[in-house]
Design goal:
By secondary structure, the protein is an alpha+beta fold. The chain folds into 2 domains: 187 residues, no CATH class; 99 residues, Pdz3 Domain. It has 9 helices and 10 strands. The longest helix is centred in the first third of the chain and has 30 residues.
Length: 288
Amino acid sequence: MGETEYLISTVPLGGYVKLLGENEEESEDLSPEEASRAFNHQHVLKRLAIVAAGPFFNLFLALFLFWGVYAISGNYVMTTEVGQVREDSPAARAGLLKGDVIVSVQGIQTGSWTEIKDLVKDSAGQGVTVTVQREGRLLSVTVVPEESVEKNLFGEDVKSALIGIVSAGKYRKVEMGPLEALKEGIRKTWEITTLTFLTVVKLFQGVVSIKTLGGPIMIGQLTGQVAQEASAIWSLSWRSSASTSDLESPAGPHPGRRGDPFPAHGVDHRQTHQPQKRDMAQKLGISF
């Protein structure tokens, strides 16, 4: 189609893009006209822009899918209803009961269970005013959170202030307009992008096992499981997360291209890099 050749491989796992003049040996057979347009004869800034296009496209794809999911189906958040109050906990001593709906913490309205935790986590040993709705009326109590040690997403021990309550596990749907869906899509894309890079750091620190990583095969398997167990909307949401997490792999000009040595293009802008060095950089990228 045009000057671009498309093909489907025998085993279509992932994808890649091969550019004109990308291989030094093949570029020797190019005509003068083709050589002027070849990848290896472009300025280093152009080459860097082409190589960076893959990861950035993954970000835009994830943002677009998240925006579509939130705009069509809205967002589901865990309600602030208390499902359990632990015995002899700060909440029990303050008089909180199962079935209470937490309306605000320190005067700040709470719309989800996550917001409650965020407002309490840094208040160990300090009195916190919690307003709840009980049997149709509002009641305010003062709770003094206790410092406790819990596991974070990576299994590390972290200190946090807790009051001893457990969510009822109920969810409510939050309808979103196009603008609200876009804002939530940006927030979610940033959240997963940050988590992806943090996972790489934890991987090198030995906190995360190398066994937890997976390539195209694992992504395909998990996508299939999500499609079988959930609706098409949540399947799209999973694909958005996978697209964002795909930034973890060294990427090239378009989504799916792997192993292109991004830093190598900035090593020397006066000449193209030697094939041996390029091959070694590609192998290093693929290994990563």
